[in-house]
Batch of 2 targets.
Target 1
Amino acid sequence: MARITAGLAVSHIPAVGAAWDLGKTQEPYWKPVFEGFEWSKRWMAANTPDVIVLVYNDHANAFSLELIPTFALGMAERFEPCDEGWGPRPVPAVHGHPQLAAHLAESLILDEFDLTLANELQVDHGLTVPLTLLFGGPAAWPCRVIPLAVSVVQYPPPTGLRCSKLGAAIRRAVEAYDEDLTVQVWGTGGMSHQLQGPRAGLINTPFDTAFLDRLSTDPEALARTPHIEYLREAGSEGIELVMWHVMRGALSAEAREVRRFYHVPASNTALGHIIFEEPDGGSEGRDTQEGSPR
Amino acid sequence: MADARPPRTKPYADIPGTIVFDAEQARKGYHLNQFCMSLMQAPNRERFKADERAYLDEWPLTEDQKQAVLERDLNRCMQLGGNIYFLAKIGATDGLSFQYMAASMTGMTQEDYAAMMAAGGRSPEGNRFTGERG
């Protein structure tokens, strides 16, 4: 049977992707960002799953205002990186898992989640920057990826609680899939940032720290955070953090935090990252040279 | 038909310096944002750059919206229904970074904005509620 082995969350800042693509990772501004992912890359290399369900949001690239699906699941065999106005990122195409995606679609809809199914979908930095941070620059991504796009551009996005429940439904669906697959769920976006208006540049480290702490120890209560609190405390774009609840909701109560990284600033944004392992997730070969993962 | 109900107060209306892109803004800005979206295609970018006014006139925008685009007044664009992710396509057409666009909305110079971010960003203290600084 398929099983969820781990979950992680990571910001998907476009400038981080551009820094990688332009070979700026050793520049003083970007070096601490990429160094912060060295441990995580080793962990990923030792724990690469068969499939990642990657929760992200599109930024007015694949979806305009013509159609605004709240949750869109990528069903295709292949998803190309899209041209966001500066040319497509020079990263490999993403290979999906149509069989598992079809099973997820069926299971989630019957579990009362009214998904939009995307058979054609180009993916933007929201999906590809996390892959770069965790895998670096391979010629091909080392596992399958099922995109799950969440609408967070037009207010209101789905609630954190709804996202958490979707995560739990994804777990049920994965555990009912009759093939021996390892699956990770990734939540992306955030943390505190505001890209617009006279308040642009807002960063709230105490909010972000508390969010990371509670995501680890008190996720059910955290998922009930009202939207107004994200807007006021974490900035108008900080509300992307609702997507992290899909990841956390997909994990068991026994999942434990093994890695955390936080850095300000990355362009306009507070970059956050956290990894949770399931107890039977299989962490042999995990690199602990740096001592405590935190 | 008269509607006796008072206008619904938005709980986020008192966040300073912030326009939440809700359904009302999206309705106002639909064509403005779709115009921005058209700039994802290189031939459209060329036509826009060759004659901005003529290209804008092809879209059912208000005169205010057209002027705001021509002046690259992103705060005004947002008031008129623009969304930052769509408006970023104009900046990309101009060859500007996202951070440049963000800085342009704050009234700060690009250098001062970058320095603020490097120092940890804009604090939420005094920036949660309109008028809290008295």
Target 2
Amino acid sequence: MKIIVCIKQVPNTTEIKIDPVTNTLKRDGVPSIINPDDKSAIEAALSLKEKCGATVTVLTMGPMQAEKALREALAMGADEAFLLTDRAFAGSDTLATSTIIAAAIKKLGADLVFCGRQAIDGDTAQVGPQIAEHLDIPQITYAAAIDYDCERDVLRVKRQFEDRYQVLEVKGKCLVTVLSSMTKPRYMNVWDIVEQDEKEISFITFADLELNREDIGLNGSPTKVKSTATKQFDKTIETVELDPESAAQTIVDALKARHLI
Amino acid sequence: MANFKHTLFEQMIKDFAETEVKPLAQEVDEQEVFPAETVEKMAKSGIMGIIVPKQYGGAGGDYNMYIYAVEELSKHCATTGVILSAHTSLCQAPILEYGTEEQKQKYLPDLASGKKIGAFGLTEPNAGTDASNQQTVAVEKEDHYLLNGSKIFITNAGYASTYIIIAVTGKGPKGPEMSAFIVESAFEGFTIGKKEKKMGIRGSSTCELIFENVKVPKENLLGKRGDGFKIAMKTLDGGRIGIAAQALGIAEGALDTTVAYVKSRKQFGKPISAFQNTQFVLADLSTKIAAARLLVYAAVAAKQNKEPTLSVKAAQAKLFAAETAMEVTTKAVQLHGGYGYTREYPVERMMRDAKITEIYEGTSEVQRMVISAALLKK
């Protein structure tokens, strides 16, 4: 069984800086991590590998420095890693990105594709489902638990809704998007940390894939970002000194006035 | 070849120490519990076999990674730091250095996977700094050595299954002839004696070892007969870098805690970090830590490059890092004031933990003897 895990390297900060001219993310000088949902997707794939045997391939699209995220996945126990990188890919929105990643998955071949639900820097939750559409395979989103029945060759996924769970079984190829709350990802281990240095990261460029230029990069991105802004919170602190009873009443009144209770 | 291993290793160890080690440090100290579950987690992540080559089940990492691990673990819990240091420097390292192929294949895989823990026994009631005054004897018989005697203050004792033991095997030209042995806890006649109650590193298990007619198979002689003292001294050269890293970690942990505290603690209407006394003390402590760090990693380089200056560099690193740890933790308590003296804050524990680094694996006085002996020999 071959599992491809799609991951994204994201800035490790809630203070994401945005280039005011291009309205895209400024990555320079911000420490990067593997997107938390994606890290759980890696863990899900590695657990499945331990249980039933599989090869785990990690795939990411991004600039050259995204190599570190792939190497971290190798150090957790993934078998091989591919970096999709090309100037032609720059400026891709979720549609163009999923077009490129789907083309790469088609080339590499996979029985299962695991993605994180969404990335903390964009929060769209679109790329996973779009990849499944491009590949024309079933998708299960918001996985809170994944199990594999090795005997029956069936993937069982517990899907999380706001108020309930749905348990689905699927046979054959499919794509799953994983929640970071699913599991605590394992630490990198020293054996694989040492070994990953002996492994090569394979690069996939535009020339390696069957893609049309008009479908990718800025040209292939129907999403146009008009403006991006950080939400401003107006904090006003009012200090009143009251006895406990009237203090409680004051708090209740204030919460009611804001329709919070 | 790519070169990401140090970056990834540092990220992993920091994450591990903060998530798994820090939350337990206070309990490990107060309850005097050996953090067995943490050691299991370390084993699972390969931390118990960093320097052991792949063919013996280890990770095949370098000495730098191992020392960095001791430093980071000790930032939060010096007990956890010394468990790794004794296991790696005092048990795995001498087997790697002096063991036969059969000994390596027999003992290293379980030590590297962390299935078994390692320890080292040299010190005796009458052989501390005067380590050559050994009373434990191993008499050569037909197919074994008969081991009798006792060792004290043995780190990891009770939890370890594999011990490197130094014993007298005869008379040499300049005094007793000593040899080193690999002794398994399961050997008949080997028992664990008194458990010490200590000032610091209270979760670390420190006990007496008792040998009563223990038959040690001849194939468990480590190195050549008569090489025991040399093996012990060379092993301690490596061990001292581990203790220096432990001391460095304790000092760094105390400084980090103190920097956070002085920014939040207010007196006379402002944070105490606004006072120049605080600022100057912090600046001095930070500078000494930086110097200690350079000495520790210079010793690591000497070890990795097999430089003849290793003994002196390891002694200098341990001497300076241990005294730095003592000074930093004492001043950290002072900057915390009354709160620093309570067990609500970790600095009093760090101060108690720091003291041992000036004592074990050679006191600071022994380090001065090593350093000056090399100077005066020239």
